[in-house]
């Protein structure tokens, strides 16, 4: 019986269509008839699975791929109890529905799109493990046993015992290297699942990853997009929070969520002991060397971790001050100075604006075309339907928004995004015309699909405009397009011979791949074994093929046993931390986790 039928609500034509499909689908799965189940999809249908069927994050494209997965996994997964959770909707011949299901080890939620009587897209996501549910709601701890007992240990005593023992007499099951938003979100998920976890970070306090950036830094994504798991931002918080607000929130979150978090801790090296099935990790904690032996190692070092510092001839001979954008603390010291910022993406724009606000004479060097999206337009045309005050008012919770977002396969995503950015071009035509007139080289991605696809494919090449573009358009920030030939003692020389005099140079030249940390901490051999992190294999600029269908190596098993990568923006850190946590919990409890579709390595680290 469906959840809708139990509620006694009348069933619509759309409901009946979905229920009929689910009935046929469940019947085929129960019979272990993979070809029949795959035949219920359109020829060009998609099934995106988040851990539920594959113990992996995989998108299956077409009936053959779907059938092959089911043929391999059905006996182990044992899916059943497919139900329609909410009234289905139908618009322009497309039926959409929220569904629930179970497997032998998990309860799941999904989203289904039907074209006629065939599935166009199916999302299945594991939500909890049977018998290992989070200790929340009715399963929360009592906290105290009423009565009188000698030797009772208080909450503070027990907390201090745990802090003293973990990493010494008690080894963590999971060690998370990197204590920014990604590591903290994952730590919170694992805490709720009862997985002994230690998060380590080199900074003095949680949140310093934000506090130590340039003073003007604010989130460019809106507050509804950026909540952490379990504990949303208060409803009075600004739409775009300042970096120090985020830093303080992360520090508070670590304390309230009772995470085991070691600041002032540097990871020196790590190696996997295959015989013991554990990592040997050498740390330096506040000057004290320690060796940890976790079973699972997570690199949550972020996409903005290893600065990509260029190697221009003459850099060492520059007579002024120079630094990478990651080390830019603010423009106060540069009033009246000539500043050259090399780069034209988010950090470059923010730093140019910061320098201009503090009275510097600023020139931006644009080396390649950049996508610009005005913040207001991005919120209204792209994010507003899922992450906004109106979305919340219409019943779209953060979790529901995340699942809707996840329900669109990456292969289809450009089709969904191109109309959005076409509308943005039209809406902001005057804005773009003025930027072009100033000499700014604009693009909307190789296939006109805009900002988010650039982010997924390469993690760079865009700026969400919160004011700096206007300074470029009106000439307040000078713009020079071209490639850098060399750095002189007094400035920057471009390949066309133009020389830009400078007292300070900021290299806003981006960051290296996350698996650069694998090379640095483990070995280049392991980094090459797992390959590139991030990117889809779209064969667009900076995202070489072949097509992989999911972000490389993120939140899922890699070619190195017990090594995981966790990163992305706040939205991704929140949403995908659930699936990574479930995979780690299942392994800790000894559940069978037959991984399907372990990605091939096509590009070295």
From TrEMBL:
<keyword id="KW-0560">Oxidoreductase</keyword>
<dbReference type="GO" id="GO:0050660">
    <property type="term" value="F:flavin adenine dinucleotide binding"/>
</dbReference>
<dbReference type="InterPro" id="IPR036188">
    <property type="entry name" value="FAD/NAD-bd_sf"/>
</dbReference>
<dbReference type="InterPro" id="IPR032710">
    <property type="entry name" value="NTF2-like_dom_sf"/>
</dbReference>
<protein>
    <submittedName>
        <fullName>NAD(P)/FAD-dependent oxidoreductase</fullName>
    </submittedName>
</protein>
<dbReference type="Pfam" id="PF13738">
    <property type="entry name" value="Pyr_redox_3"/>
</dbReference>
<dbReference type="InterPro" id="IPR050982">
    <property type="entry name" value="Auxin_biosynth/cation_transpt"/>
</dbReference>
<dbReference type="GO" id="GO:0004497">
    <property type="term" value="F:monooxygenase activity"/>
</dbReference>
